[in-house]
Design a protein that fits this description.
The structure is a homotrimer. The first copy, chain A, is α+β, with helices and mostly antiparallel strands. Chain A has one domain: Alpha-Beta Plaits. Chain A has two helices and four strands. The longest helix of chain A has 15 residues. Chain A is globular and about 50 Å long. Chains in contact: A-B, A-C, B-C. At the A-B interface, strand 2 and strand 4 of A face strand 2, helix 2 and strand 4 of B. Strand 4 of chain A pairs antiparallel with strand 4 of chain B.
Chain lengths: 108, 108, 108
């Protein structure tokens, strides 16, 4: 059996408030990441804990997770691009090593 | 404290149009993967980018992500099984190394 | 370009029936994990397969996935905490190595 062709990439899982979707996807577009998948209507509680009184998210916030698979060299530029955003808003980015099998139908 | 028992597996995250759910889960079933979890109502934009005019997904497509944890030796057969599908439809499979703690209640 | 600061953590993806959300998030809280994100309304089929008659989940169960990023040393205590739960209920925990870029706005 032949091996399926897999690409080693980084998966970015970007969790932000739903109102910031356009900002985040525009940033990905400008970085050259033109494909992503979005999970809508997540709920969440803050990374800094209810008990300490530092909430990153309130439990009622509508959050989204934007998932994109990118080459290694794009991870840092994308994270840098988000830094000014961090000063004003909350969120988190998970970076995971993955392998990707693409199923692409080119449309004419 | 004793260690919890963890199994090293591969996580497959299969993103396809919602209308192809039965095809994808049947393929998993036939490969011997009888358990999976599905995230419904994802939205997405194509891996090949809006700007280049090669859309993998349209923004209005209803996508699903099927998540399954499988032993290493099933990854390639499953990806091979999807190849004919790739010629007709779009989608992507992410493969990630994970460890799994099972919480299984056997029902009689 | 400076490097964005990333923390190496473990991502826990805890899949349980929706009716057990409070139990699972309380367990995380008590372990010191005060932040998490929840994907609601997953569907799933049992890890032990329809064909064998051992269903972990029924296809109609409403499942949730609770996602948390935790330091290595918390993984085992959390999994241990879930063990009594396993004896009564079904579910699964995926553990993945990730790197996390935090975007934290402290609120006064």
């Amino acid at each position: 059996m032949k091996e399926s062709k897999l690409s080693s990439l980084k998966k970015l899982e970007i969790i932000v408030g739903g109102e910031h979707q356009a900002f985040a996807t525009d940033l990905l577009d400008r970085a050259g990441v033109s494909g992503y998948t979005i999970i809508n209507n997540l709920s969440g509680k803050g990374q800094h804990g209810y008990h300490e009184g530092h909430l990153m998210f309130n439990e009622d916030d509508v959050l989204i997770m934007i998932i994109a698979a990118v080459p290694d060299e794009l991870v840092n530029p994308i994270l840098q691009g988000f830094e000014p955003f961090y000063n004003e808003h909350s969120g988190v980015v998970f970076v995971t090593d993955i392998q990707v099998a693409r199923m692409v139908k080119f449309q004419s």
